[in-house]
Amino acid sequence: MIQQVMTAPGEICFQNVPDPAAKEQEVVVKIKRIGICGSDIHVYHGKHPFTKYPVTQGHEVSGEIVETGSNVRNLKVGQKVTVQPQVFCGKCYPCTHGKYNLCEDLKVMGFQTTGMASELFAVDASKVTPLPEELSYDEGAMIEPLAVAVHAVNRAGDISGGNIAVIGAGPIGNLVAQAAKAKGAGKVLVTDVSDIRLGIAKECGIDFAENTRKRNFGDAVMEHFGPDKADVIYDCAGNDTTMGQAIQYARKGSTIILVAVYAGKANVDLAVLNDHELDLNTTMMYRNEDYIEAIKLVEDKKIRLRPLMSKHFPFLEYLQAYKYIDENQEKTMKVLIDVQD
C-alpha cells in the first residue's frame, strides 16, 4: 500500500509499505477521506512544537472496515467508520477518571505517532466509531473537528436560550457556532476579519456575523444581545487581540472559553479578568461521547458541513493541497484529501 510521509517541513514523499493485518483487537480500515486542519498546517510549516520528522499525517478521517481481528465483536467488514486519533495510557489520573483526552502521556495520530494518511490503517477497535450509512465519506472526515466543537460547547454547561459569541469563523469557530445553535442557544454571534468566512457562517444558519475590522466587537455584542451582553464567549482565534476583546467586552461574571491553541505566551489584561470575576475556561479535544453527539447532530441535520468543504485533492497531490491552502487562506475552510473513491 501507499503511505504519505512528511520528511521535513514542506517536504512530502510517498512510500510503498506492506499492507497491515488486523491483530486480535484491531480492525483494518480502508481510508477514504482525510481532512487537513490547522495543526497539520503547523506541521507543514515546521511550527508544531510537539511533532518530529519524519511523520505520517492524517487524523481527520473516514473509511471502510476491510478486516476485523479475531476478538472484535462490535464491528464488521464493510462498515463505514471514522477513527478517534487519541493514543492514551489508560493508567494516569485523568485516564482513570474518565478524562482520557487529558492523559498525562497523550499522543495524537499524525503528530506524535503514525497518522492515517495511507491506503490502509490498522487500529485498535476501541478507537473506531461507526458512521450512519447515509453520511458521506466527506462528512465522516469532518466528525473529528465537529467533536472538538461539541466538546467545547459542552464545557459551558447548559446554554439553552443563552446569548453566545464566537470569535473566529474558521472551521472550528464555525462548528462551535453551529453546535451552540444546535444545542439550544438563543442567539449566536460570530466575528472574524474575513467576509468570506462570515458569509459561510450565515449560510450555515448563524444569526449574526460581524467583521471586526469594520466594527468594534463590543458594539456588535451590544447591538445583537443588548446590555446583558453574551452569556458565553468562545475564543476560536487564540491571540492577544481576540482574547483581549473577550475580556474587555464580557459581561461581569460571565464565561470565556479558549478553544484555539495559542501560538506563544499570552499578554492579556488579567486585572480586568479578575476585577470582573470572569470565568476563563479552556477545552481540549474530545471524548467518545462528543463523537457520538457530533454524529447525531449531523444525522439530524442540525449541523451543515458541506458549506465548509472548500476543495478536494487526490492523495498523491497532498503537497499541492498545502500550497493551495497557503495561497488561498482567506477563502479556504476545509480541504479534503481523496485517498480512495
Secondary structure layout:
Blueprint: E1 2-8, E2 11-16, E3 26-36, H1 38-44, E4 60-68, E5 80-83, E6 86-87, H2 93-96, E7 107-108, E8 120-124, E9 128-130, H3 137-140, H4 143-154, E10 163-167, H5 171-182, E11 187-192, H6 195-203, E12 208-211, H7 217-225, E13 232-235, H8 240-249, E14 255-258, H9 270-275, E15 279-282, H10 288-299, E16 309-314, H11 318-327, E17 334-338
Parallel strand pairs: 10-11, 10-13, 11-12, 13-14, 14-15, 16-17
Antiparallel strand pairs: 1-2, 3-4, 3-8, 3-17, 4-5, 5-9, 6-7
Helix pairs in contact: 4-5, 4-10
Task: Quickly count the helices.
Answer: 11
Taking the alpha carbons of the first and last residues, their distance comes to: 15 Å
Beta strands, count: 17
Helix content: 25-40%
Described by the principal axes of the CA atoms, the overall outline is: globular
CA radius of gyration is: 20 Å
Contiguous low-pLDDT stretches (5 residues minimum) are none
What structural class do the secondary elements suggest?
alpha/beta
Profile the largest sheet: 7 strands, mixed
Quick check: average pLDDT? 97
Q: What string gives the helices and strands in order? A: EEEHEEEHEEEHHEHEHEHEHEHEHEHE
Q: Approximately how much beta-strand content do the residues carry? A: 25-35%
